[in-house]
Amino acid sequence: MIWRSWCTWAKALIGAVRSEGLDYRATSLAYTTLLAIVPGLAFSCLLLKVFGVNDQVEPFLLQILAPLGDKANELTKAILGFVTNVNVGVLGFVGLMVLIYTIISMLEKIKTAFNHIWRVSQARGLARRASDYLSVSLLGPVPIFSAIGLTASMPRASAVRRLIAQEPFGTLFYFGGSCFPI
């Protein structure tokens, strides 16, 4: 009986994905996100440099990238070199506006896709969207870096190692660790 309801639900989901064009929206979002990664990274690096916290980020990056071994130092220096070399004067006003436009257009596409999926008919006002986009752009990297750091540091904790040693938890931990980044 439960199996039949699951099959009905899965069939309805597949039908909705096909009829609503959700697979095309997902493809569009993936493509847009990939195109916006570099401008988003450049904007984040620019903000780090403007606020002067790029020197405080080095220990954090070293901790996050520790699982890479010797390459962690190299990659940290490359990232911080990129942040240091971002020249606001060379970037200029037009370049900064293009970066911001790219980020906003990506967030707008995400909003449109979610509004379509959840059948939202009335959009939020311009002021609300601007505050939402600004908060996501400025605070968005924090949970991403936190998730990366948590994923990288969890296996080294002694309590977690003891828990992993017990079989059902070890398998669940590694399965969860592979699904957590998704």
TrEMBL record:
Bilayer-crossing regions: 29-51, 78-104, 133-152
Name of one Pfam family that matches: Virul_fac_BrkB
Membrane topology reported for the UniProt record: Multi-pass membrane protein
Keyword hit for Membrane: yes
InterPro entries attached to this UniProt entry: Virul_fac_BrkB
Presence of keyword Electron transport: no
Localization annotation: Cell membrane
Keywords attached to this entry: Cell membrane, Membrane, Transmembrane, Transmembrane helix
Protein name (record): Membrane protein
Lineage: Bacteria, Pseudomonadati, Pseudomonadota, Gammaproteobacteria, Methylococcales
